[in-house]
Write a structure and sequence with these properties.
2 domains, single chain, 6-stranded parallel β-sheet, 6 strands, alpha/beta, Rossmann fold, 10 helices
Length: 214
């Protein structure tokens, strides 16, 4: 990680907002909506999964046929209700954004949550005015697991990749950012505990609170 950097790129859910657990609860709710009550072990397993992993899991373990796009659309509709009600920030998040901007560091949000839904969440949490740029993957194109995503993103904000640091809770995105040449700060979350060893192997540092950072 560079000692000084020009741009800080933040994931939203699970990184700035303490909302990833709400996303994962929807996996259990989806299974229950089919008249199936997951065991505690199955619930725990789904809590650590996202995306295509969930689709494969519910098909294999519960015999539920669902596409990723169908599951995502359902989850986004339900998360709209959660965001409108408001979700808490991760500890120290707002103050850290302000410290960075006071030093002239660009603060950027790059989220896999759909743009309209992300703006709803950020407006409700009062973070829109605390950052310089807001991007969703559907705006930039590609996946945060792909190093090419960071080429495109850094071009949009006008900074070199080696001058940028990514703050993330998801392992796949940390791996993409690291492969692209960015610094990586991992943010702990209840949903990424199963990946902790792999996260520690790829990140520069893992934090429980943004108060740990200068």
């Amino acid at each position: 990680m560079p000692k000084s950097f020009r741009a800080a790129i933040f994931d939203m859910d699970g990184t700035l907002l303490d909302s990833m657990g709400e996303w994962r609860k929807l996996n259990q709710a989806f299974v229950c909506s089919h008249g199936i009550e997951p065991t505690p072990e199955e619930t725990s397993a789904m809590y650590s999964m996202s995306g295509a992993l969930v689709v494969a899991y519910v098909k294999e373990h519960f015999g539920i046929e669902v596409s990723f796009s169908e599951l995502l659309a359902r989850s986004q509709e339900e998360m709209g209700k959660v965001y409108r009600a408001g979700v808490p920030l991760k500890p120290g998040a707002r103050a850290y954004l302000r410290r960075l901007r006071a030093r002239g560091v660009k603060c950027v949000i790059a989220t896999a949550t759909h743009a309209e839904l992300a703006l709803m969440a950020l407006n409700q949490s009062g973070l829109v005015s605390e950052v310089d740029y807001i991007f969703s993957t559907d705006m930039v194109g590609g996946s945060k697991g792909d190093p090419a995503f960071y080429d495109a993103l850094c071009a949009l904000i006008g900074e070199k990749k080696e001058d940028c640091v990514m703050y993330e809770d998801a392992l796949y995105a940390m791996q993409g950012a690291r492969s692209a040449g960015l610094g990586v700060i991992a943010v702990s979350d209840g949903t990424n505990e199963a990946d902790r060893d792999k996260i520690l192997a790829v990140c520069d540092r893992m934090i429980d609170s943004f108060d740990e950072l200068e």
